[in-house]
Amino acid sequence: MTNPTTDWHAHYEASAPAWERWADALAAQQEKVNAALLDEADIGTGHAVLDLASGVGEPALQAGRRAGPTGRVVATDVSARMLEALQGRARGAGLTNVEVRVTAMERLPFDDGSFDAVTCRYGLMYATDIGAVARECLRVLRPGGRLAALVWGAEADNTTLFVAARALQRLFPGRITDDEMTAPLRFAAPGLLAGIFEAAGAVQVRERELAMSPRIRKGTPFWRPLVEMNMGEIWNTLDTSQRAQAAQAIEAALEAHVEGDQYVLRTAMRLLTAQRAD
Fold it and tell me: Which end of the chain is more exposed for a tag (fewer CB within 10 A), N or C?
């Protein structure tokens, strides 16, 4: 199963400054999600952890805190600019056990059995060959080692993300491709990702939904970091008037999700866990 044609490497290289700008704020918001992922990977003191598609640092930095000074975390991404930002954040957090490696997920430059755990948050959707990724993850895990990954669920269950994105797509027709809109939803169907890892030879494969219902005060531009990070190719070209127009369009779309003085939204993920056979 291959990914659509968008050049995600170029996309994330270009959006790296926005990801770095919003990194700390979003890390705090995603702390429970990151914790759930690391819990499923069973990461503890002294473990060697491989994090795929690490971006600017989550959950690699939290994994570094769990692994401690006797452990090791290797954060990987195709974007060197993302990993430069991650290194800066690791230094700022006093984490000396986190290293970075620019690499694609489909061909990992690590020996067999190198890691106790493999993690990936919101990254597997962008693989060019997900079957190869699954095989590589199992190869670099030690026997009995665990993998945990998060992908997005269905669009209807992710109003936190997609209401703003669809509003911009309608406002600027032709500027946002269907590929860019649907790629994050690639493994939204229950059981699809689990089946791929089972076919690669994983055991103890489990997939479940991780859902949240955020309530946000009406008028709060919570969507701004999401737009800047994921749709910067459009946002960065807009002048002040156009940005005001975009904000109005997003706020109008969010009216369908208002109760009282709050936006009542939904966020849904698929949480996959798997293990390399002993």
Answer: C
